[in-house]
Design brief:
Shape: globular
Strand content: 15-25%
Oligomer: single chain
CATH topology of the largest domain: Rossmann fold
Order of helices and strands: HEEEEHEEHEHEHHEEHHEEHHHEHH
CATH architecture of the largest domain: 3-Layer(aba) Sandwich
Strand order of the largest sheet: 6-5-4-7-8
Radius of gyration: 20 Å
Helix content: 25-40%
CATH superfamily of the largest domain: Nitrogenase molybdenum iron protein domain
Largest sheet: 5 strands, parallel
Number of strands: 13
Length: 334
C-alpha cells in the first residue's frame, strides 16, 4: 500500500520535495564560505524557528533532499539515512559523493532511530526536510542540535526551494542556486529534445498488493511538478479517483483495482512492483496488456529506487532520472 511504501521510502530512507514554498531563511552566507561572518542563520520552517549559530561542520541528514543536496555541494554529513534498496546503502545518484566509511548510514524509519547514537555523533545541525514521521521526534532532535525541517509538509516543498534552503543552512546558498539553475536547464533541454512530451499524459504506479495498483493522484504534488516541467500531466481518469489520506506519506494517492486498469490508459506508464510475483500478476493481466502504453512500448517496469526518486525528486536525482527514463521518454509522441 502506498502509505506503507512511502512511509518506508520517505521515512526509512528520507523524503521529499514538492510544489510550493521554501523554508524562510535569513542572513544567508555567501557561496562556499564557512566563515562565521554569515551566521547566525535563522530558518523558519513548518515546526518552528531554528537558529544556526555558526557554520555547521557535523551535519546529520535525515531527508533524501538533505543528503542529496549536501553531497552535491561537497558537504560530507556525519550521518544520513541509508537507502534500503542498495547493498551499500548509498543511492545510485550519490555514488562517488557519499562514502559509508565517512558517513554513518542509519537504518529504519525516523521513529526507529537511535537518538542516543545520533547525539553521540555530536552534530551541530540536523536536516530533516520532508522526512515522514519527523513531527513525532522533532522535539528530541532539537534538543540534540539545531534542527531544520520542510516548510509545508512531507512531499510538499518544491525541490528548488528545498535545495536553496538546505544550501543556505550549510553556508552554500549561491552554490545551491547554481545547482537549481543547472537542473532546471537540464529539464528544459529534455523537454526541448522531446517535443512529443508536451501535452502528453503519464501515470506512476506501485503494484503493492494483489489485485491493485496504487497511483499518484494529485495534479499539484511534487511528482506532478516534475513531469509538468516536461510538459506532461496526469490524465483526468486518475485525478478524479478518490484519494487516500495518510498525512505525511500517503496523501493524494489512489488505488486502482485490476478490474479498472483501463483508467491507466495514457501516453507514458511507469509501474514498480513490490515483488516479482506482484509484477508478474500485473503483467499477465489482459486489461493491462491492452493498455495503449503497454502495446506501443511506452510502458516501463521500474524498480523501487526509481519510484522513490520519482516520489522524492531532488537536485541530485532528477538528472539521474532523466538518464534512466530517457529511452522511454523518447518514445512518447515519437
Amino acid at each position: 500500500m502506498l502509505r506503507q511504501t512511502l512511509a518506508r521510502t520517505a521515512a526509512a530512507l528520507v523524503a521529499a520535495a514538492a510544489l510550493t514554498a521554501c523554508s524562510g531563511v535569513t542572513d544567508a552566507p555567501r557561496e562556499g564560505t564557512a566563515a562565521s561572518a554569515g551566521y547566525p542563520v535563522t530558518v523558519t520552517h513548518r515546526l518552528g524557528t531554528t537558529v544556526i549559530p555558526a557554520a555547521p561542520t557535523r551535519v546529520v541528514a535525515l531527508g533524501v533532499p538533505d543528503l542529496d543536496v549536501a553531497a552535491a555541494l561537497g558537504v560530507v554529513p556525519v550521518a544520513a539515512l541509508a537507502s534500503p534498496y542498495t547493498a551499500d546503502g548509498v543511492w545510485p545518484w550519490d555514488a562517488g559523493k557519499v562514502d559509508p566509511a565517512r558517513t554513518t548510514l542509519l537504518t529504519g524509519t525516523p521513529g526507529q532511530l537511535d537518538l542516543e547514537k545520533i547525539a553521540a555523533l555530536r552534530p551541530d545541525l540536523i536536516l530533516a526536510h520532508s522526512t515522514a514521521g519527523v513531527d513525532d521526534i522533532y522535539p528530541k532532535l532539537a534538543e540534540i542540535a539545531p534542527t531544520v525541517v520542510d516548510s509545508r509538509g512531507v512531499l510538499a516543498d518544491p525541490w528548488q526551494d528545498e535545495t536553496i534552503a538546505i544550501g543556505t543552512a550549510l553556508g552554500r546558498a549561491d552554490q545551491a542556486r547554481t545547482l537549481v539553475a543547472d537542473v532546471e536547464r537540464r529539464l528544459a533541454d529534455t523537454a526541448s529534445a522531446h517535443p512529443g512530451l508536451s501535452g502528453a499524459g503519464y501515470v506512476i504506479g506501485w503494484a503493492r498488493e494483489p489485485g491493485t495498483v496504487t497511483v499518484t493522484g494529485r495534479p499539484d504534488d511534487i511528482t506532478a511538478a516534475l513531469f509538468g516541467a516536461l510538459g506532461m500531466h496526469l490524465p483526468d481518469s486518475v485525478t478524479a479517483l478518490p484519494r487516500l489520506g495518510g498525512g505525511n506519506s500517503g496523501a493524494g494517492a489512489a488505488v486502482v483495482p485490476f478490474e479498472q486498469l483501463s483508467m491507466l490508459d495514457t501516453d507514458l506508464l511507469l509501474v514498480a512492483a513490490g515483488s516479482p510475483e506482484l509484477g508478474a500478476q500485473l503483467a499477465s493481466n489482459p486489461l493491462f496488456t491492452r493498455l495503449t502504453a503497454v502495446r506501443e512500448g511506452r510502458y516501463e517496469s521500474i524498480d523501487l529506487t526509481t519510484v522513490s526518486a520519482l516520489r522524492v525528486p531532488t537536485a541530485a536525482n532528477i538528472p539521474w532520472l532523466l538518464d534512466e527514463l530517457g529511452p522511454v521518454l523518447g518514445k512518447v509522441g515519437a
